[in-house]
Design goal:
By secondary structure, the protein is α/β, with parallel strands linked by helices. It has one domain: TIM Barrel, CATH 3.20.20.30. It is built from 15 helices and 13 strands. Strand 7 and strand 8 form a beta hairpin. Helix 6 runs parallel beside helix 7, helix 7 packs across helix 8 and helix 13 packs across helix 14. The site of flavin mononucleotide has 20 residues, from strand 3 and helix 11.
């Protein structure tokens, strides 16, 4: 069963271009201000004004150098490089908002769980429980090299490591400290009761972590868990761990099948299948009238850089598109990078074949997500349809121009959705988990989540 109303995240990156190409050139675009804190504070205020659950930050550690075998195209077009670390923006953005959440992407392949558990607990403390962890396994060979790993691990092995990584984090977040361990008793001079703090003594294939956790329990203990796996192995991992999944199928049929499959997998694991939230990406292009929206779309589409788009996809899929003919049909491959990105065009809709040229054209505005163009009512109709009929819980909004895509949506579409009772007027609770699940008091991870069993 889908959420009662539509939940919204802004899907962004602390960089110039994220999943759109060429539109930093559009007049008025301010994506070059990603280094300016004031830019991000305004983004946070706008998202909260629109009743968003959160700002969702993607992040990578390498450079897109698969296309043509070098980084030239990606660098020239600011494809996810240059970029800064998103986590450092979060406390500042939290300080100018009261309810907005922040999902931070962190890789289980290139971090250590003890260190990352500490970083996320710290963020959860200083935001009063408004943090989510977007668990990724990473895909760029160049990132592996930068981080001193000779070879990027195989796709499925990255998930094996991620399983163990999460086991360590869960033990630190959920089991290491009792709720009442901190007594702060001035009389007896006891700050923390020693028997309220346990080692975790974790010994595994990848990690040995004695613990205990260095941080006292934060409001949510375990941050809200996001995941985006769509390969077979990725889905298994998501069904074990995720509370919300980022759906990356470009067609309605793909989204329907994905949701059904994931709910079944969650149920097989003894989890309440309705406790999984589904967020497809969406690329809204909205104008006061349909004509204005269409004009905007034409400008954006003209500004797309096809080569840059192929350089971005080449990194996602680990396939050098520069060697392929634009009229050639995209053939399915088993990739060591993001399997879901190639599946989106080869597997998810058996009725549709894509050529390289069609993929490049489609993907220039938001990669694998549908672009919705129209006046506020038309865009709201589309989102309402996806929520009511297809069963998605909400959307990750992908930006074309910044902050224009967000501002247009909040100023024009959100009022229309509010009139229909489809976007919140007020937040349910203080923490991100309460707001995501529309339930005041639901701050802790569900009891049927594997981390708590
Ligand atoms: C919608 C979406 C967003 C993603 N965002 C990131 C990201 O920001 N950083 C990152 O390293 N990987 C990101 N990934 C990729 C994951 O790290 C991982 O490689 C991928 O989920 C593996 O997917 P698969 O199970 O479909 O093969 C993303 C994947 C998808 C589908």
């Amino acid at each position: 069963m889908a959420a009662d109303y539509i939940h919204l995240n802004l899907f962004t990156m602390n960089s110039v271009e994220h999943v759109t190409t060429g539109n930093w050139r559009t007049p008025g675009d301010q994506s070059h201000r990603y280094t300016d804190l004031d830019y991000w504070l305004d983004v946070a205020r706008t998202a909260e004004r629109g009743g968003f659950d959160g700002v969702f930050f993607a992040d990578v550690r390498g450079i897109y150098d698969v296309y043509g075998g070098d980084r030239e195209t990606a660098v020239e077009n600011a494809i996810q490089t240059p970029s800064n670390d998103p986590a450092y923006l979060v406390p500042a953005m939290a300080s100018v908002t009261d309810h907005l959440g922040f999902a931070v992407t962190k890789s289980t392949s290139y971090n250590h769980p003890y260190q990352l558990a500490r970083e996320l607990s710290t963020l959860d403390h200083v935001t009063d429980g408004r943090v989510a962890f977007n668990i990724v396994t990473s895909y760029l060979e160049s990132a592996a090299a930068n981080l001193g790993v000779d070879d990027r691990m195989d796709h499925d092995e990255r998930y094996d490591r991620a399983d163990e990584f999460m086991d360590v984090c869960y033990a630190l977040w959920e089991d290491s400290w009792d709720d009442d361990a901190v007594v702060r008793d001035r009389e007896t001079g006891v700050y923390t009761a020693p028997d309220g703090v346990e080692a975790i003594d974790f010994e595994g294939e990848y990690f040995d972590v004695p613990g205990p956790h260095g941080c006292e329990p934060s409001p949510q203990r375990t941050p809200v868990l996001y995941q985006a796996g769509s390969s077979e192995r990725g889905r298994a991992f998501a069904a074990d761990n995720a509370e919300a999944v980022f759906v990356s199928q470009p067609t309605e049929r793909g989204v329907r099948d994905y949701i059904e499959d994931m709910r079944e997998r969650a149920a097989e694991r003894g989890r309440d299948p309705d406790d999984l939230r589904f967020f497809p990406g969406i690329v809204p292009v909205v104008g006061e009238t349909e004509e204005i929206a269409r004009k905007k779309y034409e400008t954006y589409a003209e500004n797309v850089d096809t080569e840059a788009t192929l350089a971005l996809l080449a990194g996602f899929i680990d396939l050098d598109f520069s060697e392929l003919d634009p009229d050639q049909q995209v053939e399915h491959i088993e990739t060591e990078a993001i399997q879901g990105a190639i599946n989106a065009f080869t597997k998810n809709d058996p009725d549709r074949d894509w050529t390289v040229g069609e993929v490049a054209e489609f993907a220039g505005l938001g990669t694998t997500s549908p672009v919705v163009v129209g006046d506020p009512e038309q865009v709201a109709d589309r989102l309402e349809y996806w929520h009511e009929e297809v069963g998605v819980d909400g959307f990750n909004l992908k930006e074309i121009v910044r902050p224009g895509t967000l501002e247009d949506f909040v100023d024009m579409v959100v009022p229309e959705l509010r009139d229909r009772g489809l976007v919140r007027e007020a937040y349910e609770g203080q923490t991100l988990r309460e707001n995501l699940f529309e339930e005041a008091g639901r701050t802790a991870l569900a009891e049927d989540h594997p981390a708590r069993r």
